[in-house]
Amino acid sequence: MSDLVADRIRATATRLGLPHLARTLADLTARADTESMGYLDFLDLVLEEEQAVRDERRFRSALRLSKLPHHKTLDEYDFAFQPELDPRKIRDLATLAFVQAKANVALLGPPGVGKTHIAVALAVAACRAGFTVYFTSLDDMVRHLTAADDIGRLARKLHTYLRPNVLVIDEVGYQPLERAQANLVFQVISKRYEKGSTLLTSNKSFGEWGQVFGDEVLATAILDRLLHHCDVVAINGPSYRLKNRLTAIDGQANVA
C-alpha cells in the first residue's frame, strides 16, 4: 500500500469516526500481509477491532456515569469463605436475565459478608453488557431527594433514579427513616416497578423493614412492588472485613 493511499484511508477513517483504524492502519495491514488475509478477512478484522475499541470506550463511560464506588468482579469474590452461598445462584444472576426481565435482586445478610461486592460485580457486568447503571446508598438517595423536594425539584431529581436500567441501592436498613423519607423511597420503587431493575443490599430481614421505614403499611407497599419479580439471596456467613482485621492483628502479634 502506498503512503498516499494510506494517508487517504487515515483521513477518511477520521472523518467517519473510526479513530482506531486511523491510528493502527499500519499494524493492521502488516498483520494482513503476515497472515495472507483475503479482502473479506481483512475487512472483518478492521470492523472487529473498531467495534472492540468502541465497546471498551462505552464500557468505561458507563462505569464513570454509574457512580460505582469501586470495580469488583465475581472472580474476586471468595465463595469458599461463604459455604452456604450457592455460587451457581450468583453466576445465574450474572447472566443478567433479571435485567432483561426488568426484575429485581435483593442481597440480604449481616455486615461484611460481601453483599456490596456482589452487587457491584453484577452492576459492572451490566455496564459491560450495555445497560445503564446508577449506584447509591439509601441514605444518599434519600438525602438528595429530600433536598430536591425542599426546593421544588423533586420530579427532576427522581429522574436520576428512574432513568437507569439498573439502580443499585446499597445499605438499606443501616439508618431508620422518617415517614416522609420513606415515602420518597416508595416513589422510586413504585415508579421503577416493571420498568427497570432494582438491585439492593440490606442487613435487615424483610420482617424488620417496618422499623426501617417507620411505617408498616408503607414498608409493605414497598416490599409488594419490590418482591413481585425478585431474586432474594441471603448470605448468612462470617464477615470478610472482620476476618481480614483479625488476620492483620494476628500478624502484628506474631511480629511482636
UniProtKB/TrEMBL annotation:
Superkingdom in the source lineage: Bacteria
GO biological process: DNA replication
SUPFAM superfamilies: P-loop containing nucleoside triphosphate hydrolases (SSF52540)
Record's keyword terms, sorted: ATP-binding, Nucleotide-binding
Statement: the UniProt record of this protein carries the keyword Zinc: no
GO molecular function, one term: ATP binding
Residues of the AAA+ ATPase domain: 101-233
Annotated InterPro entries: AAA+_ATPase, DNAC/IstB-like, IstB, IstB_ATP-bd, P-loop_NTPase
Family from the record: Belongs to the IS21/IS1162 putative ATP-binding protein family.
Protein name per Swiss-Prot or TrEMBL: DNA replication protein DnaC
